Amino acid sequence: MEQLAIHNYLHSFFTLNKCKIEENVNGKLTVQLTEELDRLLMNRPFYWEYIKKMGQEGTPATLTFVSNPKYKDTDGEWIHFGSPRLHQIFRSQLEQGKYTLVYEQAREAPLKPWLVVNISISYKGRQKKEELLSIGLQLINGTMVLDFMEKLKPLQFSNMISDYCFTISPIIRIPSAYKRIENYVKEYIQEQDHSWAEDANRHFEKEKDILEHFYKTYLENATAEEKEELTNRFESERKDLEKRLLPEVDISVINGGLFYISDSSSSKIVH
């Protein structure tokens, strides 16, 4: 599920950034970047500087990502939560601006606003785990939909509203909608299996007991000056243990925005 979420996120990211999708099958995604994304992701400023001096358009790079473990050894870049490329894409969205405003390309239809938030949840402890949540909340009636970016895939969007379409003003304010999504995420985390946290706490207590026993042996025979130094070292190592081993859940917003969507498309998304 985690790898599928990454694949869907990448597909949505490159689609919304107007990249050409050349292949999308079996967890393999091949895209031709735009010049803007090439500049952000490929780290070849001298190429673009030379091309512009020559008065040419240049050819953005084509990338292939593999997110399905079954095809991990095929041609392409294996991508997962720990891969530098995925975090580079996250950072590129921060550089571009985390939020977007787009309109469904519909015909003569009122478009209703959805607040969409893509969220990363990191579970940190003895072992680490990350997952993505994509949540959409309609700002008219408060309907909340999960896996939202996946359900947007059949639709076409633009940053310009189509002729003869018009937008419906939100009834629910964005801060209130975001708070609802935030509360849902907190409840979602509470409902998860917390055995990983219990295991992390037990492991921390075991390591702390070993550390305390180690320093206690030295403190018993230390001078006053040595005791101060040993105490400071103990506190430093104990804090390091806490940082490395104690369970922690970190929630961060990757990106989001307002998506104006027709009623006909919204009904398909909800059902």
SSE blueprint and pairings:
Layout: H1 2-16, E1 20-25, E2 28-32, H2 35-41, H3 45-53, E3 62-66, E4 77-78, H4 84-96, E5 99-104, E6 110-124, E7 129-138, E8 144-146, H5 148-151, E9 157-158, E10 166-167, H6 174-190, H7 195-219, H8 224-245, E11 248-262, H9 263-270
Parallel strand pairs: 3-4, 5-11, 6-10
Antiparallel strand pairs: 1-2, 2-3, 5-9, 6-7, 6-11, 7-8
Helix pairs in contact: 7-8
Explain the overall architecture:
By secondary structure, the protein is an alpha/beta fold. It has 9 helices and 11 strands. Strands 5, 6, 7, 8, 9, 10 and 11 form a 7-stranded mixed sheet that branches. A hairpin with a 4-residue loop joins β6 and β7 (129-138). The longest helix is centred in the C-terminal third of the chain and has 25 residues, at 195-219. It starts with a helix and ends with a helix. The model has no long low-confidence stretch (mean pLDDT 87).
State the end-to-end CA separation.
Answer: 20 Å
Number of helices in the DSSP assignment: 9
Order of secondary-structure elements: HEEHHEEHEEEEHEEHHHEH
* Overall 3D form: globular
Strand residue content: 25-35%
Strand segment count: 11
Task: Provide the gyration radius in Å.
Answer: 25 Å
Please outline the major beta sheet. Answer: 7 strands, mixed
User: Mean pLDDT score, rounded?
Assistant: 87
Residue ranges: pLDDT <50 for 5 or more in a row? none
Structural class, by secondary structure, is alpha/beta
| Helix content, binned percent | 40-55%
